[in-house]
What does this fold into?
Amino acid sequence: MSQPFRVRMAPSPTGDLHVGSARTALFNFLIARRSGGSFVLRIEDTDAERSDMEKEAGIYDGLRWLGLQWDEGPDVGGPYGPYRQSERHEIHHEAVAALMADGHAYRDYTTAEERAAEREGQRERGEPQRYSGLGRRLTNAQIDERKAAGVVPAVRYRSEPDAVTFDDLVLGSITVGPDDIDDFVIARGDGSALYNMAVVVDDHHMQISHVIRGKDHVSNTFRQVLLYEALDWAPPRFGHLPLVVNERRQKFSKRDGAQWLGDYRAQGYLPEVLCNFLIFLGWAPVDEREIFSLDELVQEFSLQRVNRADAVFDTQRLDHFNGVWIRGLDIDDLAARALPYAAADGLTIGPADHDYFAAALALEQERLSHLNKTAELMDFFFDQDLNPDMRQAKFTKHDPSETAQALVRVSELIAQAESYDDATLEQQMRELAGQLGWKAGDLFMPVRVAVTGRRATPPLFATMEVLGRDRCQVRIQRAVKNLAALTGGSI
RNA sequence: GGGGCAUUCGUCUAGCGGCUUAGGACACCUCCCUCUCAAGGAGGAGAUCGCGGGUUCGAAUCCCGCAUGCCCUACCA
It folds into this structure.
């Protein structure tokens, strides 16, 4: 990639970024950065009636969260604005007028009923359903009549019976036959430009050099190419990415659960992970590495290595990436990221508890699969009233009263330990197990349950060190009490 | 109905005419490590490269046909 590419991302304001759009944005971002070019954000809000500002913000949030900063856009401006399609009506209109002036487009006074009837007839006869140019054949008298009757004409491109070909950066050369493009509408009755028209005009005026988008746009591309020719503008290069599909190999939809970036954020995925995962949906590096930061992707990415086949969004693989990235995070970084999730789940961690939280989190780091599991994994570190259910200890080898006696010994040991740390604790507990004639593991499990209230925890002694002597002592006392209740008497 | 595109383990992918008994990763299974859970390590199972024809000394790789799938087929974007 020698020339700086000017690429763009043109989402509709939906309030959040769709994962498919996020992926398209990623590819565009990478191409721009890699070539030293520009990444343009254009909001395609022409269809929207209501206030889009909030929905627009959702797009910004998603992009920023992923780390895909744009160089030009509605909020940051740029030399080719405005960057909101709804503010470009006049520019579109000029082009539509030009097309009409030189005969490439015409006003169509047919009615919706007439067009529907034509389609219906074609369908019944088993013919391809295409607009035959009804409006071109209306006589002046008919047109006057309709004008008088209040028919508001749409503007249609006047198609010629030629094949259209373009060379796609990903798909290669693509051709559509002469009969397969009809007189499509480029502007509504009210004069506003339709998608294909608006896109061509905007991309041209914004000097977009490469249009990289989803494969679902290839059929639009033929029309757009025609418009570029009619307008006598040099078209950009096109590159169509394979689609991200669900398990059933269809386009992602609401039925497929999480389809918005915000969903993934809420589920505790790291933005780095989304980038890392998404880029592998349709692209692979030259070697067999799998973990890439955005910066590394900028170095490695190449359009030539983009696939043509659609890719299934595999959540298990996403989860795996999340784990790898979480484990790779520096503990302070992880703590800063996990804190909001923990707080959202009701874990109150004041500034004074920060170090304690980080120390505990360090123990859970390799067990944390998603940031939103933080509280679930760590609440026992913060539960002042933890009241361990000792039945979890199972008592397969030693019954509750025996276990209680052992815990009393543990409590004494804790009280006397001159140094309350991982190594000392382990050494002394192993000694105690020996004195008791227990297998070490058989002693550790009830202690674990007593001190954490659960069976699955980080390594026991490191956990006890972080919890601290007092917390452990209190919890073991309670455990002994609970054990006594289980046996129905005292010990 | 029409058009376009695609088709390598269940999934993401490597492969670009011989180096391939088709490589890696996720998930799965076994074992090791081990105080639990993870993480990690070592193995295993899993793809006649959609099917059928060609081209070639030789094809997952090139060509043709078929099948299947997806996308598009609006005065939506």
